[in-house]
Amino acid sequence: MYAITGITGKVGGELARNLLAAGQRVRAIVRNASKGEEWATRGCEVALAKMEDGLALADAFTGATATFILPPPEFDPEPGYPEARAVIDGVVEALTKAKPARVLCLSTIGADAVHDNLHSQSTMMEAALRKLTLPLTILRPGWFIDNASYDVASACETGVIHTFLQPPGKAFPMVAAKDVGSVAADLIQESETGIRVVELEGPCRVTPNDLAAAFATVIGKPVHARPVRRDLWSGLLRSQGMKNPRPRMRMLDGFNEGWIEFQDRGCKAIKGQTSAVAVIAALVAEMHPLCAAHAMQPDIPVHP
C-alpha cells in the first residue's frame, strides 16, 4: 500500500496513476471527501487528513509500505515560515507514529542553497525528516516547465512572455511535472535503506528564449521573452496580492545568480523525457482553446 499526499496535483496524480498502472494499491490522502471522489473511482482507498494534523495524517499513513510527502506550496509565506513549520510538525508526528517502511519526499532544487529564499521551506522539511529513523528518499526536481501556465494568456494574446528568470538566453535546469511524477513512482517502489538525494531535470536545459520559442511553435506565431527589471519585482508582486515577496525574489535571484543549482551542474541528475514544447502544447490546449488548434497537430507530442 502506497500512501500519497498531494494526489490532486500534477505530480501526485501522475505518481498515483503510474502506481495503479503497475498494479499497486494506493491510498489517496486528501483534505476533503469531494477531492477524493475521482481517486475512489480509480480504485484507491481514500483517507481524509490535513498536512498540519499529525493524528489524522498518522492514521492515513498507518499500514503503508511507503508514503509520499508533498508539502503544500506556500508562495507568499509569513516571515519565519510558520506555515511550513506547521506542516513539518504534522508530518513528523505522523511518520513517528505510523512508521511506514520508507518515505519519499518531494523537495526542490535549492534546498541546499546557502541563502534564505522561498525554497528554504524545503530545507526545513528535509532537515526534519533526516532526523527520523526511517529510510528516506529526497527528490529534488528543477524549475517546473509547467510554471509557464502563467504565460499562456500573454503569449497567445500579445506574443510576449514576461520572465523573472534572466538573462533570457541563460539555460536553467527545468523539468516537466509529468516526469517528476513518473520518476517518483519508480523511486517509491525501490527498497532503499538510509537516506538518499535524487536530483531530476529535463532532457536538456531551457532558457526563457526557449520557452518563448516553444510557445511560438505551439501557437504558430512569433513569441518573445521580455525580462522584468529587478527593481520592479517587489512592486509588481505586491500588486498581485503578495504580502511578503522577499523569499520569492531571493529564490529568483538564486537561479539568476547561480547559487540555486544542482551538484556538479546536474551531471549526476536523472534526466526526464518530456520537452518544453510538449508541456506548453498541453498547457495551451487546456487553458487557451482559441490557440489550441496548432498545438494539437500530430507533429507536436502532447502527453496526456
Give structural notes:
- This protein has 304 residues and is an alpha/beta fold.
- It has a domain at 2-145 and 174-201: 3-Layer(aba) Sandwich (Rossmann fold), CATH 3.40.50.
- Helices cover 40% and strands 16% of the residues.
- The protein is built from twelve helices and twelve strands.
- It has an eight-stranded parallel beta sheet, with helices on both faces.
- α5 links the parallel β5 (102-106) and β6 (136-141).
- The longest helix is centred in the N-terminal third of the chain and has 17 residues, at 82-98.
In brief, what are we looking at here?
With 304 residues, the protein is an alpha/beta fold.
Residue runs with pLDDT of under 50 for 5 or more positions = 296-304
Give helix and strand order, one letter per element, not per position. Answer: EHEHEHEHEHEEHEEHEHEHHEHH
CATH class of the domain at 2-145 and 174-201: Alpha Beta
- Could you estimate the helical fraction of the residues in percent? 40-55%
Largest β sheet strand count, sense and barrel closure: 8 strands, parallel
Structural class: alpha/beta
CATH homologous superfamily of the domain at 2-145 and 174-201 - what is it?
Answer: NAD(P)-binding Rossmann-like Domain
Q: Output mean pLDDT.
A: 94
For the biggest β-sheet, the strand order reads 3-2-1-4-5-6-10-12
Proper CATH architecture of the domain at 2-145 and 174-201: 3-Layer(aba) Sandwich
Supply the number of helical segments: 12
CATH topology of the domain at 2-145 and 174-201: Rossmann fold
